Amino acid sequence: MKSRLPTSAIIIGSGISGAAAAYFLARRGVDVQVLEASAPAAAATGAADGAVSVASKRPGPMMEAALCGIRLYRELAGEGLFADLFKARSTFIVASSEQEAEVLHAHADALTSSGVCVDRLSRAETARRFPVLSRSAEMAVEVHDEGHAIGYRIVHRLLTAGGINVRRDEPVRRLLVSAGRAEGVETVKGILKAEAVILAAGSGSAHLLGLRDTLAPRKGQLLVTERAPHLNAAMPGAIMSGRYLLSKGSQKAAAGKPARGIGLVIDPLTTGQFLIGGTREDTDDHRSNDFDAVSRILADAVALVPGLAEVRLLRSFAGVRTAVVDGLPLIGRLPGLDNAYVTTGFEGDGICLGPVAAKAIVELACDEEPSIDLAPFDPARFAGIEVAA
Ligand SMILES: Cc1cc2nc3c(=O)[nH]c(=O)nc-3n(C[C@H](O)[C@H](O)[C@H](O)COP(=O)(O)OP(=O)(O)OC[C@H]3O[C@@H](n4cnc5c(N)ncnc54)[C@H](O)[C@@H]3O)c2cc1C
After folding, report:
1. Which 3 state secondary structure label does DSSP give 79?
2. Are strands 190-193 and 330-333 parallel, antiparallel or unpaired?
3. Which of 34, 126, 204, 271 could be joined to 121 by an S-S link, Cβ 3.0–4.6 Å?
């Protein structure tokens, strides 16, 4: 395919998706303006765990895209851009009951069928590889070649390396559209024009696309501990409880309360701290943590890694994922517009998928073959898209 480079582009949003799109365009010499309602990484990207992982995926388009996402992190780490930001590690999915072990064996088969490298560890092997785990661990599956990255640090690096200044506190109100093309945008401060427009506004995309019933907020609560270098060093990777596989969606709640699921993931950070998550709740409240969620996450964590009982909790925080009703993100050209694109709706996978999706969108905008198959993520599958124009 022949490349057709736009000379200028507007990017709406400076989470990981917008920052990565800005970086890949700037690297090609495109004049980029990034418009941000608040500040870089102010929304989901700044409140994420950061697993760059396929461990919980099932075979299908999300698995294929996530494998490309991990490859891109490795590539960018190899080039030096993410060298100090991407921590390569395995994920250990741990079964604490026979029922979980059964689910986990089937899941390991599915991962293998997608070309993911996994090892099944018996009870004894699990205890040997992962001595800090509780004796309740029946077995584990080690998922190799995974990693971890902190979203706001990735955003900072992409913006700095791309030489990009973000126009903060400048929300976009609408796209300016004429004769099947986006001419630019109207922000709270005025009108800006460019040859291409990329919408990477996370939950803010719902309003700009008229998709309020298609995009849904899904809150998550996370915890960070103090440094515990010895315990941290004794963990050869992240732990995911087998129950996580059963609880990726939110679950039914008592009357009047939003639905909530808890799936335990414990990530040993390079700082010696632990990042422990998290919940999935059908609400857009990103400002609060509650005692019930924090105490349940901690109880689950200590049940799996008893040594954590001696480690102090430093802080808790919450963020809101942008979920799409059919479980697949929106990545592609906006229907009816030649030069406008969207990349959003990654739910709990945007740290892994954000950079590779942004790279694919930039390739699409340049009339090149995208690095990932975008057909399953085509925004045109939702007839209701109505660009706020
Ligand atoms: C608790 C939690 C845990 C997570 N864990 C993981 C994980 O382990 N692994 C993983 O891969 N992913 C994880 N995620 C998901 C990941 O954080 C998101 O999918 C990803 O950050 C989405 O990035 P984004 O750039 O698309 O959107 P966002 O980060 O939401 O950024 C969108 C930006 O657009 C701006 N904006 C909105 N409206 C407008 C407007 N009108 N004009 C201008 N700007 C606008 C916002 O202010 C924001 O800065 C987690 C998320 C949460 C909340």
Report:
1. helix
2. unpaired
3. 126
Peptide bond into 345 cis (omega under 30): no
Nearest Cα residue to 239 out of 351, 137, 346, 86: 137
Each residue's pLDDT tens digit, 270-280? 999 999 999 99
257: left (phi over 0), alpha (psi -120 to 50) or beta: beta
Residue 4: its pLDDT value, please? 82
Each residue of 317-341: pLDDT tens digit? 999 999 999 999 999 999 999 999 9
Secondary structure class of 113 (helix, strand, coil): helix
Q: Is 91 in the pocket of ligand 1 (CB under 6 A)?
A: no
pLDDT in tens, 112-128: 999 999 999 999 999 99
- The answer on pLDDT for 307 being more than 60 is yes
What percent of the chain stands above pLDDT 90?
89
What confidence tier does 250 reach under pLDDT thresholds 50, 70, 90? Answer: very low
Q: Is 329 in the pocket of ligand 1 (CB under 6 A)?
A: no
3-class secondary structure per residue, 17-52: HHHHHHHHHHHCCCEEEEECCCCCCCCHHHHCCCEE
CA distance 209 to 206: 5
Query: Tokens representing 315?
Result: 């802080």
Yes or no: say if 289 and 317 are a contact pair by the CB < 8 Å rule. yes
Q: How far apart are CA 102 and CA 243, in angstroms?
A: 12
Residue ranges and CATH numbers for the domains of the chain are 8-47+152-214+326-381 (3.50.50.60), 88-145+216-324 (3.30.9.10)
Length of the chain: 389
Residue 254 has pLDDT above 70, yes or no: no
DSSP 8-state class, residue 272: S
Residue 8 exposed, middle or buried by CB count within 10 Å (0-12, 13-18, 19+): middle
State if residue 351 touches ligand 1 by the CB under 6 angstroms criterion. yes
Distance in angstroms between the alpha carbons of the first and the last residue of the chain = 31
In the prediction, which pLDDT does 385 show?
A: 73
Whether ligand 1 lies within 6 angstroms of the CB of 35 is answered as yes
Residue found by looking up tokens 């992240």 in the block: 238
